[in-house]
Amino acid sequence: MKTIRLFIFSLSLVVLASCSEKEKVTSVVVKNTLDIDRSIETIALNKSELGVEDLTTVGIKDVKTGELQVTQLVDNDGDGTMDDVLFQPKVMANTENTYEIVKVTEAEKPTAEELCYSRFVPERTDDYAWENDRVAFRVYGPTAQKMIEDNVPGGTLSSGVDAWLKRVEYPIINKWYKKDLETEGSYHVDTGEGLDNFHVGVSRGVGGIAAKIDSTYYYSKNYTKWRTITTGPIRTSFYLEVATWNAAGKSIKESKVISLDLGNNFSKFTVSLEGIDTVSVGLTLHEKDGVVTGNTDNGWVSYWEPHGDSEIGTAIVAPKNTFLGYEKYDTDLIDESNAYAELKVTNNEVVYYSGFGWKKSGQFKTKQEWESYLNTFAKQINTPLEVEVQLAK
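== DUF4861 domain-containing protein ==
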């Protein structure tokens, strides 16, 4: 009898220990309060939120399906320690999903192609270029600026944002630069993947900023410093800084972090600004043969125009409490006609989203489809997914 009782007691301890282990699981509840399904929004969880010291062994498992999610680790400050773990939950309309934080080895983590990519491009003067599975962009650096100032051919003086019109999901940045610089081909010609035929000049391109003083718009020059923060299957992000610039006697200090997530047509700009309380973010009007539209209630301005043998829509979207209004600025000065969103700077920071949709890519067939996407995107940024971390006890 003693042996049997001892066995039952031992078995009870095992069961209790098992229950105790289950109680120690940290869970993450993601709630979608909108009446639309959501699958391309990125959740960032940090070490403090998860109550862990090392994110490299963290896995995120869907409780319902048992599937490990694709994740990406990010070192935000470049100190060699990972600060955030990213994932993109799929949450149906008006529902919530629960995920468990589990310990995994590197071999156990699911992998995905690194479609979100960016880099400094010294072989093409000093561009900085970035892309995901839907869109690509670039901006221009100090060498390109100095070439213009020194009357050297091939330079670019602009703080506008260039759009690269890709129509394939796979990465094209390295391939197109190599094609243009090392072969007789050119990324200005579409051979099936898309092309760069989007003129920027001194315009704002797709999301460059300006300071409006009275009725005049003032710009910074090219970026002066850069730092890549992360690339991966879910997000690429990087830091840019420009030299302090002058707007009618106002001295403006500017730096920014730009990020682009998988599945999105919009880059997120988190801009640090000192010296102004409002900022204008622009979209070039090119030949002025397109249509400027906007929705102040939802916080966006758009420009849909004929472009080559196709059409293109560009847009700025910002949180509703940031978006003050929009205007079409038409001038005879070359490249200086832009559609502008006026945004409020709060605590020396402004956040906005800038991007485009090219009809030839097959993503948007009409101006109406593009504007429907803008309204949906605006809903998502104004009503973010609700995330609750329930720490193990």
